[in-house]
Amino acid sequence: MTETILKVDQISLAFGGVKALTDVSFDVNKGEVFSIIGPNGAGKTSMLNCISGRYRPNKGAIHFDNTDVTNLRPNDRADLGIGRTFQNLALFGHMSVLDNIMVGRHHLMKNNWLTGPLYWASPAQREELTHRRQVEEIIDFLDISHVRKAVAGTLSYGLRKRVELARAIALKPKLILLDEPMAGMNLEEKEDMARYILDLNEEFGITVVMIEHDMGVVMDISHQVMVLDFGKKLICGLPDEVMADEHVRQAYLGLEENEQLQEVG
């Protein structure tokens, strides 16, 4: 029996007179990869921002792991187990890869300004060593050990994407929100990232909600796919069901036109 980990109920969001989302509802089951697709301006990133707490919807409710998180701050949602990456990289370019990932562990550390001066004489040192060991495991998992000491801003775009994913994993999330994790990557980098997302989902048991424009990847690794159209839900279902929908095929995937061109050729 499937268990719902995220429930989005009748979410609406507007900026002035512009409606970004209108009465969008969907459920994400625990342990699945749930993808959101649609053209630019469809409201995909706005939806992730509502789930993560960056935006507060004008209407509706969001429940995560049986808790109403609609009015919680992003940090409070992270404490409950919601992590995310961004469409535009949000790394600290002047810091090392290791230190960037350690930032993701910060909210899990008990050390504070009171224990800080007593660092070497308190459990804080042992706590940091424990966190560093767990970060090293994430580094190994994502095959970035060779750049662990490199300055993040000097890395290639594909590697920086991987570092940002590592930082999100370091939060120990139950749910991770991925905003175009493969944008700007070449074919080999996309294949690697798809494999990491699958392993993240299957081996770590992390539920994934992902925005992605590469339809081949979306259809290959997703359990459910939702299509947004000008801020409204067009369809939500199994990848094959979404692919078979005529409106989706014509307006978003362009399959009918491609098929006609192949027949003419």
Automatic annotation (TrEMBL):
GO MF terms held by the record: ATP binding; ATP hydrolysis activity
Keywords: ATP-binding, Nucleotide-binding, Transport
InterPro entries: AAA+_ATPase, ABC_AA/LPS_Transport, ABC_transporter-like_ATP-bd, BCA_ABC_TP_C, P-loop_NTPase
Keyword flag ATP-binding: yes
Entry's Gene Ontology cellular component terms: plasma membrane
Annotated Pfam families: ABC_tran, BCA_ABC_TP_C
Domain ABC transporter intervals: 6-255
Keyword Nucleotide-binding: yes
Protein name: ABC transporter-related protein
Protein species of origin: Shewanella sediminis (strain HAW-EB3)
